[in-house]
Structure to design on (840 residues):
DNA sequence: CATGAATGAGAATTCATTCAT
DNA sequence: TATGAATGAATTCTCATTCAT
């Protein structure tokens, strides 16, 4: 480190601020470069030493979890807001779009985004998701043979579209979602394939394959 | 390795045979363990030394490309067969399902499967894909506001579903595809979002982001 | 830490008290976990910040020395008490046993216990040790071809026994010492090997190889 | 690495030779600098890259074990040779001295030398050790109230003497051993302290405290 | 004067690629 | 030509020490 850099970098910044800086740097790094980014890169971006990160997060895995949890928290917010909307249909639709946008905003994190270790969080997401879906179904906007797992799978499916197109066609996922939404309207009942079981969905979300 | 084994193994194995063995081992390894599998693992599975792999493929990247090209070749086969089917609708549907199954069979490769560097191959896939789509549209099975890029995006979207569910719910992608197919039937025209442009699609397929 | 706790804790704790707390915590930590224990662990145990330790002890090494000196002080006490005993034989024996017990009580410190940097301290230990030995020899309890260095080496030898057995057989060293004591009684004169020279002993105690 | 060094270092030396070089370098490094020596140091001493070491030994621990096993193998040799000596007394004595010398030769390894994970090896050492002791007892050279655990403890006790004196008084342990031998001769029966139990001894040797 | 957050060199380990045999 | 041993840069994590607050 040159003397200049040394001067630029203020030693002993406020601790709370540093935690924020680390999480921000981590989130940005993960978003942009993926979860494989080196701890030194994150530290440099946060303007701290690697040791500082390890003081707050015992391992890289913990840092990743913290970032993912922050993101998942915004998912819950999105659900809550959607549930408060007067129109159930609009609430459901808004939620789907926000989930697309959120995945777009965190492309680098998608490989782990939907792996939610915390039982309680996972359960709340599920309960609120079911509520959103049922409200929309009761309003007649969504066919009755769909279960929340279908929504989950839809959200998962956006990942690979977004990962591929984020850089060159940031809106590509919107059209796919629009098509999916059309398949959600009542009228096409009688699906030959059974939905993903809740148990399987749970296993997937817990275990984090890939 | 004893001298005897050395003799048994090496003695004038045909070069062509070696190439096959390497590609088979690589494909199997990639399918099962992902592209991150070590070169030594592949070599062991092929029953050759790593050096032999590097003789045929200057880098791991080249080996990956070769495997992906083989898989992509089966995609072209699938298209050709679909085009030969009497019913355009059935041909189109069959192609989609075969693409789902193919991705399932090569889970470990999905992160790179649709990155096709070869211009000619990419073009043929595109032309044949368009033909499949148009035939189905002409038969009235698919709405006219769809372009082949929509199909491409649909295929991409299966990746993340398959990656997550392959181990616990191998059929999960089928239901998602079934829903997508319903959104493909005429009647829902007037999409607000424009399709992925052909140029963007090309860039994505060439560059291989992730 | 809340502001309140901050106030409760810090408010004018006496400097001397702090020093005691640090030394106590360090001794306990070293005894139980070995000299490799982290400075933060010691600080936490003492209820102070690491910085406070570094204010009193410029380096971890200095803290270790301070703790060792305290322990060595108890060695001197033991010698003094032994010298005051009526029976020279009993004094000598008691000293040996107390040294075994002391090493047992400070297992974690043994790798450095007998490294005594302070010339004066080392000299006093030597003088008093010689006195103890000679008194016992004059009383006929110890053979005359032994020098104090033999006793020193005996004490050193207990270290590795204690380190190995402390957890599973806390009395193992006693039997070894008992055997050594038997070899100390007159009758076995005519040792082929010369004793450790005083100079060598001094070097060892000063330099602290391991 | 300068060009010169590059030239000096012959790439691709014979594999078997390299294994020897690595073990030799490791043994020498451990002996001289202790088990904490860095893998890079060992690699440099062996004239190979670190990766080469890791090819043979999956972890540093494995390398350490390999070195220790080699040393322990010489212990077994020493026992076997001692058992073949005509005079049981001389055999026993020779063994003790060779053990002292061996520990002296491997000072840096002493912290782990007597931790023997392999049940079979540990058992053979014990059986042969017992045989050596009993033969000497039958010949009247060693008192009958001693068990092999006493010998084990004696060998352990040499460690700390040797660690401290190796550099300045390489023969210091010999005098201690000579004294111990005198305490071994018949005549001093009636020890107040029980010997280390075989079970405790086993636990110590397996678990490796310190 | 006390605090404890921040530092960063150092240690073990991995793996694509090279090249002597 | 085939082999697989050797390479070493890169990565994660630790801990004695410093210094802003």
């Amino acid at each position: 480190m040159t003397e200049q850099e040394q001067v630029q970098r203020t030693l002993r910044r406020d601790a709370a601020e540093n935690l924020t800086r680390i999480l921000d740097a981590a989130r940005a790094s993960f978003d942009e470069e993926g979860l494989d980014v080196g701890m030194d890169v994150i530290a440099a971006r946060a303007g701290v030493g690697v040791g500082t990160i390890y003081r707050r997060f015992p391992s890289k895995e913990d840092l990743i979890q913290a970032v993912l949890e922050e993101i998942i928290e915004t998912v819950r917010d999105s659900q809550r807001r959607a549930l408060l909307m007067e129109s159930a249909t609009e609430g459901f639709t808004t939620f789907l779009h926000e989930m697309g946008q959120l995945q777009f905003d965190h492309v680098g994190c998608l490989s782990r985004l939907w792996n939610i270790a915390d039982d309680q969080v996972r359960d709340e997401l599920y309960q609120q998701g079911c509520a959103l879906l049922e409200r929309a179904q009761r309003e007649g906007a969504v066919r009755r043979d769909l279960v929340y797992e279908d929504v989950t799978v839809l959200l998962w499916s956006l990942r690979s579209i977004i990962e591929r197109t984020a850089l060159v066609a940031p809106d590509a996922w919107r059209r796919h979602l629009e098509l999916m939404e059309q398949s959600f309207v009542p009228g096409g009942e009688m699906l030959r394939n059974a939905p993903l079981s809740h148990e399987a969905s749970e296993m997937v979300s817990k275990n984090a394959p890939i």
Notes: Confidence is low (pLDDT under 50) at residues 1-12 of chain D. The CA atoms of residues 133 and 206 of chain D lie 22 Å apart.
